[in-house]
Design brief:
Elements lengths: L2 H58 L14 H16 L5 E5 L5 E4 L13 H7 L4 E5 L8 E9 L6 E10 L1 H52 L9 H15 L5 E9 L1 H8 L1 H17 L6 E6 L2 E7 L3 H16 L2 E3 L2 E3 L2 E9 L6 H18 L3 E3 L6
Parallel strand pairs: 11-12
Antiparallel strand pairs: 1-2, 1-5, 3-4, 4-5, 6-8, 6-11, 7-8, 9-10
């Protein structure tokens, strides 16, 4: 896979990861926001319960004598209740308030209204009559939107006995504003947190994708290059040669130059493998120093090198072979020691001597061994492809 295709593939994977990560993050955000909304509603219920309890204990219960509300309120009781409720309503803590007997009759209403009362059969009324407290956030219905309705038993301060049911409607505006403000703040905080999380995940994904692409590129490079000299290896040379031969079939000329170092084994045996490795690296540097950027130098293995010369005629290939011979014949100085070696070179042309990389290599190899036997330095293949 080419580096460009790897980058495109990596970019697609990164984009896919980004889109995929948005889904759970969005779900987390939606669930959290909904949880905040539910928490706000629960806060409103708790607030309504506490407010109603304060009204019942501080205002209503002290005003009652303890008799059952079904018997009606005395004039004194009614006056005390009216005074207490006037104060509460004047302060804006109560929207509407009723005292009801266990039979459901409205014994006192702050505004004198007895209509639109909750039926006795309603579960909320039955719960309050049985000694419980029912709290609802009312958003629609008979009463205006935005109130907290609380029903609870009335416990007379005089004897501590339940005498009826207190029905209280508390304004929700203040608590709604507070809940909305806290929810808005929480949404912003959550959005920033999720954005930070998303950015962190995206950074990790980008870094991981980049590292994987780098590792893949490194692995591909190492698989196609010689670890000692850094030159292309046999596999990369074969691929490049096949591409050049494809162009050769369309009329482009070229040449393949096969190089074998003479007496390299003696250098390894007498001076050591470290000197031998240094010699191979220096040979690679010398070969690449005199060639065009379009030419390819590869180490095929051992002391064998190969040069691919695209867009080259016979004369051009002969000149390159002569230059390479002269260059490598010059002594090498390795770790302070002069080292001299010989070289044998075989040249094959394409498409004249071969139409595949294997056939061309074979013809160049024959030419190289002919030069080695003749001690002529280099030889051009004389065979003609069938």
């Amino acid at each position: 896979m080419s580096s460009r295709r790897r980058r495109q593939h990596g970019s697609r994977l990164f984009a896919l990861y980004v889109l995929a990560s948005l889904i759970p993050i969005s779900v987390i955000g939606a669930v959290t926001v909904r949880g905040d909304t539910n928490a706000g509603t629960q806060f409103a219920r708790d607030w309504g319960r506490a407010q109603s309890a304060v009204i019942e204990q501080m205002a209503i219960a002290p005003a009652l004598s303890g008799s059952d509300l079904s018997l009606g309120l005395s004039k004194a009781e009614r006056g005390r209740v009216q005074s207490a409720t006037d104060l509460a309503i004047f302060n804006g803590t109560v929207s509407h308030l009723r005292l009801r007997s266990f039979t459901g009759a409205v014994e006192f209403s702050d505004n004198g209204s007895t209509t639109s009362s909750l039926p006795v059969s309603d579960p909320s009324f039955r719960a309050a009559a049985a000694g419980g407290t029912d709290v609802r956030v009312m958003s629609s219905g008979a009463h205006s939107p935005g109130v907290v309705r609380v029903l609870q038993p009335v416990i007379a301060a005089a004897n501590g006995q339940a005498t009826g049911v207190l029905e209280v409607y508390l304004p929700y505006d203040a608590i709604a504003t507070k809940v909305a403000g806290e929810t808005h703040t929480e949404i912003i905080r959550l959005a920033l947190s999720l954005l930070g999380l998303f950015a962190l995940l995206a950074l990790i994904s980008w870094w991981t994708t980049r590292a994987l692409r780098h590792n893949a590129a490194t692995h591909e490079y190492e698989s196609l290059h010689d670890s000692l000299t850094g030159l292309p290896n046999r596999e990369l040379f074969r691929r490049t040669a096949e591409d050049a031969l494809e162009r050769g079939r369309r009329g482009e000329l070229g040449a393949l130059v096969l190089i074998d170092l003479d007496h390299f084994k003696e250098v390894n045996d007498t001076l050591g493998h470290a000197i031998g490795d240094a010699l191979l690296r220096e040979v690679g540097r010398r070969l690449t120093s005199i060639l065009r950027t379009s030419d390819l130098v590869a180490r095929l293995g051992g002391d064998e090198f190969c040069v691919l010369l695209p867009d080259t005629t016979l004369l051009g290939a002969q000149q390159v072979a002569a230059s390479l011979l002269e260059l490598i014949d010059q002594p090498f100085v390795l770790e302070g020691q002069p080292v001299s070696i010989g070289v044998s070179i075989g040249v094959a042309l394409f498409p004249e001597h071969g139409v595949t990389a294997d056939s061309l290599m074979r013809e160049a190899d024959l030419a190289m061994y002919a030069a080695k036997r003749a001690r002529s330095g280099w030889t051009v293949c004389t065979a003609v492809a069938a």
